[in-house]
Amino acid sequence: MLDGKMRLVIDPVLARLGKAMAASGISANAVTVAGFAIGLAAAVAIANGMMIAGLALVLVSRLADGLDGAVARASRKTDFGGFLDIVLDFGFYGMIPFAFVVLDPEANAVAG
User: Fold this and answer.
1) What is the four-CA torsion angle of 80, 86, 91, 96, rounded to 10 degrees?
2) Catalytic annotation, residues
3) pTM value?
């Protein structure tokens, strides 16, 4: 519900940024990989107890995740790009909870 309302605000901005980035030669795959790298940095920050930095990096990573699609739509979509995006997204989705386990295994790695 909230996502739909936020997309009305965010999507036009991402579309403009995506067109500008595509026009300057930046590929959607480069944005995808950069977003994943930022997500990895977020996981490292969280694992080291730097929660504010981790949150900021997570937000930037998710912005890049939205932006890569806008760049692809402004240039050219590829099957490989879609595959790369989903694989790295799932990698990110696994890294963040794992970072909390690394931060405090006794509290966060307990099953059940």
Assistant:
1) 150
2) 89
3) 0.90
Fold of 2-108: Four Helix Bundle (Hemerythrin (Met), subunit A) (1.20.120)
What is the total residue count of the chain?
A: 112
Which pLDDT tens digit goes with each residue over 61-103? Answer: 999 999 999 999 999 888 999 999 999 999 999 999 999 999 9
Cβ(22)–Cβ(75) below 8 Å: yes
For the CA atoms of the chain, what is the radius of gyration? Answer: 16
**CA–CA gap between residue 96 and residue 47 (Å, rounded):** 9
Q: How does pLDDT run across 13-68, given as a tens digit for each residue? A: 999 999 999 999 999 999 999 999 999 999 999 999 999 999 999 999 999 999 99
User: Coil, helix or strand for 24?
Assistant: coil
Query: What is the token pair recorded at 104?
Result: 């405090």
- Give burial (CB, 10 Å; 0-12/13-18/19+) of 49: exposed
